[in-house]
Amino acid sequence: MKKNDSTIVEGFPPLMCHEPRILLLGTIPGKNSISANEYYYDNSNRMWKMLAELSTQKLPTNYTEKKVLLEHLHVVLWDYYQFVKRTNSTDKGILEGTPNDIVGFVRKNPTITKIAINGYGKYKEFGEKLQNQFGQSIKVFRLPETSGLNASWTLEKLCKEWSVVFEL
User: 2 lies in a domain?
Assistant: First the structure.
């Protein structure tokens, strides 16, 4: 791919659980996740390690176990964008995007009371907008990125920051 080339990428549908309480929003799956057809497939992303730590469950070794972990935590995974035009597999490569109907999704799933935004920069981009749309009815959390590109955040630090989402 040349420097100015771009690709249209389609995201995944929500990865549902029974009675979801927390909607965890990323941006859109990266190349490795799309190839594997799995959310947070790339091992450099600490999402699954962090969720296992926070839930005191064992680290899932396959996608079925990952779904069980989400069920245990009442977490649904989804992404802000339905489609993007991007130059590479990182968020910085996104040139433009079409958002998912997050407000409609949350209204159809009234057990959701929290939205966790995976990445500080993403909060500025769409977290504030969601908080304004939901007002006091849904708490939107601004959290550090779990990506391996966010190397300054250790797993321990990530767990500490993300733990607020799982408190009652």
Answer: no
